[in-house]
Design a protein that fits this description.
Largest sheet: none
Order of helices and strands: HHHHHHH
Structural class: mainly alpha
Number of strands: 0
Shape: elongated
Radius of gyration: 17 Å
Helix content: 55-70%
């Protein structure tokens, strides 16, 4: 399986919406968006579809701030030792220095 940051983004948005109680499947369908778009679409088309999705999510929820509420900060723990180093480092430069 190949990795695509766009595919990861699309899956992440869908997952966060689903975990927040939003009917993600239905809204993705209405926006004409599917997970395969993360691999198949060009960046402009994918951006347009994601923008349309967020408009539908806001309309459906009635909450213009829903995008802030469904997101959660990524924890760096999944990066193991590297995540720990990043958490302890106040700057990118110090992270790089600690890795050498």
């Amino acid at each position: 399986m190949s990795y695509s940051s766009a595919l990861h983004l699309v899956r992440g948005v869908k997952s966060r919406l689903s975990h927040s109680g939003v009917e993600a499947e239905s809204l993705f369908e209405q926006a004409g968006l599917n997970e395969g778009d993360g691999l198949a679409c060009d960046a402009l088309s994918l951006s347009d579809k994601l923008s349309h999705l967020w408009e539908l999510v806001v309309e459906h929820s009635g909450d213009p701030l829903i995008g802030l509420k469904v997101s959660t900060p990524h924890r760096l723990g999944w990066l193991g030792v590297m995540g720990h180093i990043m958490l302890l480092s106040p700057t990118v430069q110090s992270t790089i220095e600690r890795c050498h």
